[in-house]
Amino acid sequence: MTSTPGGPGPGQVAAARARVRRVRPRDAARMRALRLEMLADAPLAFLETIADAAARPHAEYAARIAYTSEGTDTAQFVADPGGRLVGHAGGTVAPEEPGLTVVYAVYVTPSWRGTGLLADLIDAVAGWSRACGRRELMLEVVVGNDRAYRAYQRLGFVDTGVRVPHPTVPTLTELQMRRPA
Fold it and tell me: In the chain, what are the domains?
């Protein structure tokens, strides 16, 4: 089996899987690069523009990564095959629902899609959520993003029927999906 320099091709199984782990403070520069990739690839899926993210000083990225590298309120997990990071998923507490973790900023580099990495990232958030005493996961998907919707369905998420306005694009709507952690 061969793989491209950026990872396996769509639908291929990675010869050496990317290790999914919680971010560490030393990941700040690689996490910044991944964040810019995320925003360039899927600008409607995340809550800031690529211009805003690019303008943010490295010290702010470093502080955010340090904060999310420990504790039970929020966490970020990355897929690290060695070299550049190829995936991300975060989780944060929902103060109004103590048993719920909100999953955010889920992303897999295009050349790594279809390899099982999405499931590994969600499993990492779910494990952390359970360890924090939160037994349910919730995420939001832009209505019409059928690829993401189907991928989350395959991972056990169920459409709750709840629809909310997109936080930054008023003409869009997001749907909520939930599953046990």
Answer: 19-180 (3.40.630.30)
How many CB atoms lie under 10 A from the CB of residue 20?
A: 21
The secondary structure of residue 86, as a DSSP letter, is -
**DSSP secondary structure code for residue 17 in this structure:** P
Q: Is 177:145 a contact under the CB 8 Å cutoff?
A: no
State in Å, rounded, how far the first CA of the chain is from the last one: 34
The three-class DSSP label of residue 137 is strand
Question: pLDDT in tens for each of the 181 residues of the chain?
Answer: 233 344 444 444 443 589 999 999 999 999 999 999 999 998 878 888 889 899 999 999 899 999 999 999 999 999 999 989 999 999 999 989 999 999 999 999 999 999 999 999 999 999 999 999 999 999 999 999 999 999 999 999 999 999 999 888 889 999 999 999 9
Does the predicted TM-score (pTM) go above 0.90?
no
Which residues lie across from 139 on neighbouring strands?
177
Helices within the chain (DSSP H only): 28-41, 50-55, 58-68, 117-131, 146-154
